[in-house]
Amino acid sequence: AQKVTQAQTEISVVEKEDVTLDCVYETRDTTYYLFWYKQPPSGELVFLIRRNSFDEQNEISGRYSWNFQKSTSSFNFTITASQVVDSAVYFCALSGANTGANSKLTFGKGITLSVRP
Amino acid sequence: GAGVSQSPSNKVTEKGKDVELRCDPISGHTALYWYRQSLGQGLEFLIYFQGNSAPDKSGLPSDRFSAERTGGSVSTLTIQRTQQEDSAVYLCASSSGGVGGANVLTFGAGSRLTVL
User: Fold this and answer.
1) Number of residue pairs across A and B with CB atoms under 8 Å?
2) I need a labelling partner for B30 at 20 to 30 A (CA). Which of A113, B71, B91, B111 fits?
3) Does the distance separating the beta carbons of A50 and B104 come in below 8 Å?
4) From the CA of B13, how many Å to the nearest CA of chain A?
5) Residues in contact with B23: Cβ distance below 8 Å, sequence separation at least 6, in sequence order
């Protein structure tokens, strides 16, 4: 069975602070995909990033960066110089590569990030 | 359409009534998913349609829940004899890829169901 754990439930920071959202996953698959989605107050989930299990390079996109470490089964997400518009619920998700049950996305419970001006 | 469209956006119903929730995926997307989001519970998988294959219904919580996808496009999620624990946001998503877990899902805004 696949599992995604987002131990942090709510984080509150002041604008311009850096913040890291943790994600730990469990899977028996050797090939799998990890995702982060953002759910702003409007409710619609927005895709942020997909990473496959063979690519452990960290990725940076503007103020966003992701740290994938297979050794600790973690896929953490850092927002640098946070802004009020970053306030949202952030979900980490996992899927297997093949067809069948594991090809569906398994989500963590989400982290509510509040950025105060 | 440009995005995944869901209707109604809000539905309030009485316990015991049936409800239908509609999802119109992105044109050309072969895969369609329904998820349920309850307060503090993350997203729970309900059902998955891929092309003309038999749907994966493994996430449906009870036989009161069913879903159809007509003509490989629009999908309807039906909840019969609604219970208060059915209150949640029901999210639909679609993707363009073939089978497999690499697909990026595009989500709709959801249908918020409240059962009184």
Assistant:
1) 65
2) B111
3) yes
4) 21
5) B4, B5, B6, B32, B34, B74, B75, B76, B77, B92, B94, B108
